[in-house]
Please model this.
Amino acid sequence: MAQLIVFTDLDGTLLDHNNYRWEAARPALKQLRARRMPVILCTSKTRAEVLPLWEELGLRDPFVVENGGAVYIPRNYFPFPLPKARSDAQFQVLELGEPYQKLVRALDEAAKTGGIQVRGFSRMTDKEVAKLCNLKVAAARLARRREFDEPFVIEKATPQRKERFFNWLRERGLRWREGGRFLHLMGGNDKGAAVEQTSDLYRKVYTAIRTVGLGDSPNDLDFLAVVDEPVLVAKPDGSHDAEVRSKLPQIRLAKGAGPEGWKEAIEEILGRQA
Model:
């Protein structure tokens, strides 16, 4: 039987959209841990945000941060060298994204060229981010410790000027994705490329693997499109994202929202493997 590998978004998926709690998913996480099935967090969050949660969840598997900007792999996790990775005390790091300051400069220049008003995390205070994200100030401070991805909002723009703004970014090889609360500016990286590279590492370990992906928004499209079994978790109002459904018409729909839907989907998948 193929080894199951689970890739999951956080906000609105494994974490509740409003309070960021995950406890409703605990039974399914416990089953995955008991069966030694890897769970890879795949998020727009920073390493500084993910690491405490990763430890709280009791995970020991790699995780993807800042929309595929980097993959953090625990040292000695795979039984072979990773020559393209840099190492620190705890992880080997595959860096896939553009440096953060390059993105900040590009966002400012694109906004100036397009004649629109934008605000990225680099221009916000910890308190502003906390208010926008319903976070405590300490958590917002971690969210602003970015390396590969700049979340931003468009505050004022006509459709024509917005089009000029996005064209400027596109012409320079930069990309953006729509998350639950923000647009995200990034380089050539995305969650899909990070998931594919991580899956390739697992293929060197197991004879066969089956990848599952769980997300809730267009920001997850890239990685949901490359897994074997994509799952779309419901929004708090019970609906499912229309853009994801239109682009992935065969995607499985989890009825529940956030961690409740996550648990439901994982338990159904594990039930088929029993």
